[in-house]
């Protein structure tokens, strides 16, 4: 039997639907998804099987014009993810079309044209009339010689099987890279931190843009089969701490409950989750925060 296995990097602007697609391909929630831009911060791998092929999807942070240290580290991680992959899939949003951001990403791809296979996935086709798609496909293919174009809805699952089968056929021949039953390649403590960060972002997106980070301090397997998880939420200001706690601690209680429920499902055991908020005005400049996120602090340097 000949098997195939390879890495497929999903790149695109923030909010394009990269994490949604990865989760659909893997068939489980591996990467967090929110309606906010810049949700994914590091490279997250999800493993999917298709026939005798193993496709390792690499979710990346969105590519945008970076301003802060964290932004730069994220964008570097995204391009690094693309460079390491066997195939790159550029995702764009059908209803937004060819934005300046998309043009810039295509320009960067053009600089290394020929070094890698690049396919195009026009996502969120559920949001546009079908006739828009033909024009968009033509225009994008005039800008770059994509190997294939796929029209998909990552959320609804339209066209995603076709994309998966195509990828299964083009990843290189070779042995599997991960055990067949493994779906993610991210330490549990990091997945746990991401789940809490998702709940925080969903609940507090207006008040707390994205100036917080979550770290798992302790992961303790208990004798009764349950897990105790202690996490720290870093915010930049006292006011932010108040927002996360909420009136009489109501906000943190509610988001802790939501995170705990999801984690319980994920680990398949009872979870005790303890959250603590810390004010750390300078966390964006601390190298340890970056390694905890799976980013390289040096990548953020100017
Ligand atoms: N209507 C529609 N919405 C979608 C589709 N795919 C993703 N979304 C939504 O788009 C938003 C962003 O999705 P994500 O998967 O977090 O996007 P991303 O590219 O990973 O974003 P970053 O991590 O910030 O770079 C979420 O609200 C998704 O539910 C789709 O096919 N159709
Ligand atoms: Mg994402």
TrEMBL record:
Region annotated G2, chain positions: 38-42
A GO BP entry: ribosomal small subunit assembly
InterPro entries the UniProt entry points to: G_ERA_dom, GTP-bd, GTPase_Era-like, KH_dom-like_a/b, KH_dom_type_2, KH_sf_prok-type, P-loop_NTPase, Small_GTP-bd
Chain segments carrying region G4: 123-126
Region (G5): 152-154
CDD domains: Era, KH-II_Era
Record region (G1): 12-19
PROSITE patterns tied to this protein: G_ERA, KH_TYPE_2
Topology versus the membrane: Peripheral membrane protein
Location within or outside the cell: Cytoplasm; Cell membrane
GO CC annotations, alphabetized: cytosol; plasma membrane
Domain of life, per lineage: Bacteria
Binding site for GTP: 12-19, 59-63, 123-126
Residue stretches making up the Era-type G domain: 4-173
Alphabetical UniProt keywords: Cell membrane, Cytoplasm, GTP-binding, Membrane, Nucleotide-binding, Ribosome biogenesis, RNA-binding, rRNA-binding
Residues spanning the signal sequence: none
A GO term for molecular function: GTP binding
Domain KH type-2 per the UniProt entry, residue ranges: 204-281
Region (G3): 59-62
Function of the molecule: An essential GTPase that binds both GDP and GTP, with rapid nucleotide exchange. Plays a role in 16S rRNA processing and 30S ribosomal subunit biogenesis and possibly also in cell cycle regulation and energy metabolism.
Record PANTHER family: GTPASE ERA (PTHR42698), GTPASE ERA, MITOCHONDRIAL (PTHR42698:SF1)
Assembly notes: Monomer.
Family from the record: Belongs to the TRAFAC class TrmE-Era-EngA-EngB-Septin-like GTPase superfamily. Era GTPase family.
Protein name: GTPase Era
Organism (species): Nereida ignava
Gene responsible for this protein: era
């Amino acid at each position: 039997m000949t098997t195939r296995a390879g890495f497929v990097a999903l790149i695109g602007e923030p909010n394009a639907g990269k994490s949604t697609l990865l989760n659909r391909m893997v068939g489980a929630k591996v990467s967090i998804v929110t309606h906010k831009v810049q949700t994914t911060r590091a490279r997250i791998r999800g493993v999917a099987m298709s026939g005798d092929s193993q496709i390792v999807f690499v979710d990346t942070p969105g590519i945008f014009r970076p301003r802060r240290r964290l932004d730069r580290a994220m964008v570097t991680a995204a391009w690094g993810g693309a460079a390491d992959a066997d195939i790159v899939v550029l995702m764009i949003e059908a209803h937004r079309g060819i934005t300046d951001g998309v043009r810039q990403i295509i320009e960067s791809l053009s600089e290394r044209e020929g070094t890698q296979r690049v396919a195009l996935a026009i996502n969120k086709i559920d949001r546009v009339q079908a006739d828009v798609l033909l024009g968009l496909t033509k225009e994008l293919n005039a800008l770059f010689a994509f190997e294939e174009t796929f029209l998909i809805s990552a959320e609804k699952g339209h066209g995603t099987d076709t994309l998966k089968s195509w990828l299964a056929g083009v990843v290189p021949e070779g042995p599997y890279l991960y055990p067949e039953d493994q779906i993610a390649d991210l330490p549990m403590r990091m997945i746990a931190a991401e789940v809490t960060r998702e709940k925080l972002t969903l609940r507090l997106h207006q008040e707390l843009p994205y100036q917080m980070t979550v770290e798992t301090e302790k992961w303790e397997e208990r004798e009764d089969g349950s897990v105790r998880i202690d996490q720290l939420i870093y915010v930049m200001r006292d006011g932010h701490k108040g927002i996360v706690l909420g009136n009489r601690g109501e906000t943190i209680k509610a988001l802790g409950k939501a995170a705990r429920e999801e984690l319980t499902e994920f680990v398949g055991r009872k979870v005790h989750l303890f959250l603590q908020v810390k004010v750390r005005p300078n966390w964006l400049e601390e190298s340890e925060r970056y390694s905890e996120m799976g980013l390289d602090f040096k990548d953020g340097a100017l």
